[in-house]
């Protein structure tokens, strides 16, 4: 049974496929993706969407979101689109140079969420291909460089922690706390686990006086997120495989592998 969209926010599932250069994920939404790459995302060619304020390209007969419109798109109900698929590109002129074969490959990507050929096009200069169904529920994102993936993860983990564990002010009001992004070295050292498939659970985070511990379970390779969620519900009763720890005093992150 599919969970409500709010439930997505406090659990992240990640499975990294190094040879095909993509990551399957649950729990990371487009708004978080756009925020992590704020100011560095290029225009987005929309392969599947329901956004009603996009521009139109006559050559591809596809709509696109210009760079300056990305924040508006990110504020929309992207989860409600159903399928949401895009590929970034450097400038509109390059769309007019796409061949019939390349356009067919792009349509296939959007329709099947699979690549026929490498999904990185020199003409487009794209860094990503973002293929989501119920955005945040099932996302398959291709990365030209996995550096971008680890940057996203470092930002998202600290942001989610701020949302899930807000501090109380003197008046008892909950306010979002800001945490430093997780150092990339810590996340890079999790790569062997991420290749197997992991859950990072904020709902199971243990907030102590001096530190916050976020458990990680190695869960396996899932394309069906209902099955993944079921396995997580079972695994959360078992010992975790690793945890990332935020030290409140030093404001530093550490990794503890069991």
Structure description:
This is Peptide ABC transporter permease. This protein has 258 residues and is α+β, with helices and mostly antiparallel strands. It folds into 2 domains: 29-135, no CATH class; 148-257, no CATH class. The chain is 27% helix and 29% strand. Strands 1, 2, 3, 4, 5, 6, 7, 8, 11, 12, 13, 14 and 15 form a 13-stranded antiparallel beta sheet that branches. Strands 9-10 form a two-stranded antiparallel ribbon. Strand 12 (206-207) and strand 13 form a beta hairpin. The chain starts with 10 loop residues before the first strand and ends with a strand. The model has no long low-confidence stretch (mean pLDDT 93).
Write the layout of secondary structure elements.
Blueprint: E1 11-17, E2 22-26, H1 30-36, E3 43-48, E4 55-57, E5 62-65, H2 70-74, E6 83-89, H3 92-95, H4 100-112, E7 128-133, E8 138-143, H5 146-164, E9 167-168, E10 174-175, H6 184-188, H7 191-196, E11 198-201, E12 206-207, E13 211-218, H8 225-235, E14 242-247, E15 252-257
Antiparallel strand pairs: 1-2, 1-11, 2-8, 3-5, 3-6, 4-5, 6-7, 7-8, 9-10, 11-13, 12-13, 13-14, 14-15
Protein name: Peptide ABC transporter permease
